[in-house]
Design a protein that fits this description.
Elements: H1 2-16, E1 20-35, E2 42-57, E3 63-73, E4 84-85, E5 89-94, E6 97-102, H2 107-110, E7 152-159, E8 162-171, E9 175-186, E10 189-198, E11 203-214, E12 217-226, E13 233-241, E14 246-254, E15 263-273, E16 276-284, E17 290-299
Antiparallel strand pairs: 1-2, 1-17, 2-3, 3-4, 3-5, 5-6, 6-7, 7-8, 8-9, 9-10, 10-11, 11-12, 12-13, 13-14, 14-15, 15-16, 16-17
């Protein structure tokens, strides 16, 4: 009787979940991080991230998604904090349309049309082609207890090689922000532009990127203009495959911020298989200090 009751209960439970799916994914990393500008120049680097995503499809074909995240990091002394968590992000998609609502990425952070970050260098991507530029690029992340996350609404439409994306963020404490962008892929190359405005300081901004591949070499170029910065910003990054498992990366950024040094760094990534890779890099940050890191990262 117990076996029959258990089987009946399981059948009823799974019947209600037939169209739904819950997945767990993320990564872990650990290693060493060096910054000559810190009192303790070398510290333990560590991060663990777990993202929980639930998806389902309605009878008319609409795909619904919701997700939250848990993450723990080191602090400046190298100690690990207790895992923080995120606000929820939601999405609805059908055909070439996708609507994101809540704690979600805006146009620039999402990479829908502009490659803002490029090929990051190091275990922690401490150097990117956008380092120090500071454009409003908010995404899905974690916060401490009691944090209030401003909701974002983003709509994306893709038709073949063309993509259009728009986002609006309503922050009761920092004002409103909107972004609009367009991108196009052609063969091994892609180009995109995004522009917008933030109420705080009434700053306009625009960013454009151009990306491409030539065999083992891939590159990304970024140009941005932000009213909050003194000058036009620009950066670039490259990735070169020296074998089936190893790649060399380089990134450069001139943030356009008065008093900032140029950021530049070179590093490597070497796959160990099974989603595990050894990564490291060395370079110069916006404060003019030498920085470097080395460690392993594994995806799950």
């Amino acid at each position: 009787m117990k076996k029959v009751l258990f089987a009946t209960t399981a059948l009823v439970a799974t019947a209600g979940m037939a169209a739904a799916d819950v997945s767990f994914g993320g990564f872990g990393r650990f290693g060493l991080f060096y910054d000559e500008g810190n009192a303790d120049e070398t510290r333990i680097e560590q991060r663990f991230r777990l993202t929980i995503t639930g998806t389902t499809t309605s009878d008319n074909g609409l795909e619904f998604e919701g997700r939250i995240r848990f993450q723990t990091d080191e602090n400046a002394a190298g100690a690990s904090n207790v895992a923080n968590r995120s606000a929820a992000g939601f999405a609805v998609s059908t055909g070439g349309f996708r609507l994101d609502v809540g704690h979600v990425s805006d146009v620039i952070d999402s990479g829908d049309v502009v490659n803002y970050y490029g090929y990051g260098v190091g275990l922690t991507s401490f150097a990117e082609q956008s380092s120090g530029i500071g454009l409003p690029a908010s995404g899905f992340g974690t916060s401490a207890d009691g944090a209030l996350i401003a909701p974002t609404v983003k709509l994306r439409y893709t038709a073949g090689d063309f993509t259009a994306s728009a986002s609006y963020t309503d922050d009761a404490t920092g004002g409103e922000e909107w972004q609009l962008g367009f991108g196009y892929n052609f063969g091994n190359f892609s180009a995109g532009i995004a522009f917008g405005n933030e109420d705080a300081g009434d700053n306009d901004f625009v960013a454009a990127s151009f990306d491409g591949e030539f065999g083992a070499l891939a590159f990304s170029i970024l140009i941005a203009d932000y009213d909050a910065n003194a000058d036009t910003s620009y950066g670039f990054s490259v990735k070169y495959d020296v074998g089936a498992a190893t790649e060399i990366r380089f990134a450069f950024a001139d943030s356009g911020v008065a008093g900032n040094d140029e950021t530049y760094a070179i590093g490597f990534r070497h796959s160990l298989g099974g989603g595990v890779s050894l990564r490291g890099g060395i370079g110069n940050n916006t404060a003019g200090n030498t920085v470097a890191d080395l460690g392993v990262i594994f995806d799950f």
